[in-house]
Amino acid sequence: MKLFVYEHCPYCIRPRVVLGYKNIGCDIEYLLDNDIDGHMEKIGAKQVPILQKEDKSYMTESLDIVDYLDNLNANPIFTKTNGRNDIEKIFSEMSSEYRTLIFSYVQCASLGEFATDEARQYFIKRYLKHINLDNVNEAIELREKHKEKVENTLKKLEKCIYSKKHISDCGLSMDDVIYFANLQRMLIVPDLNIPLKISEYMEYQLSKNNCNIKYI
Ligand SMILES: N[C@@H](CCC(=O)N[C@@H](CS)C(=O)NCC(=O)O)C(=O)O
Asked: What is the CATH number of domain 85-209?
C-alpha cells in the first residue's frame, strides 16, 4: 500500500496514526503541492490523503481511510465515538490564530510537498488566500500575538484530556486519531508552552503512533 500525503496536513496524520498503532506496512509518498495532475489522475480532485490499496485502487477522505486501515485484519482497535463538543468548541475559539501561527512556520519548513520552490510558492499563494493575508511577513509579524492566544486556549484544552493514554474516557478511540492529528502540527512552533497534561498525552501518543515527523 501507498499513502500519498503532505507532511503538514492534519488529515494526513489521521491514517498515519492507525498505521503506527497497528504497525501496518505502507509506503509514505509526498505529493508536490503544485502537482495538480498527480492528484487528479488518482482521485479526480486536488486533495490528500490518498491511499493506494494493494489492488492498486485509490481511496480518499481521511476518516474512510482510517476506517479501512483499522479494519484491515478484522481487528479494529479504535472505538467509534460521537466526537467531543467540548474540544471542538475550544479548537474553534483559536482556529484562526492556530492556523496562521502554524502556517508562519510551515511555509518555510523543509517538507516533502515543497521539494521544489514552485511547489512552496504555490502553497504560500493558496494558503494566504485561505487565511486572508496578503503576504508571509504579515503572518510572521503576528506570531507572538497568536502564540499567546494559542497558549491560553491550550490551558482550557488541557482540562479536556482524560489521561495521557486516551483523550476520552472510552479508551483508545477515534477521538485520539482526530485530536492528536490536530494537535500534532503545533509541534512545528518553537518554544510553544504546551500544558503538561497535553505534552504528556502527545508524548505517549507519539510513542505508539510513530508520527514523530521531523519538520525542519
Ligand atoms: N475531508 C478531507 C479533507 C482533506 C483536506 O482538506 N486536505 C487538504 C490538505 S490539509 C488538501 O488536500 N488541500 C489541497 C488544496 O487545497 O490544494 C479528508 O478528511 O481527507
From this structure: 1.20.1050.10
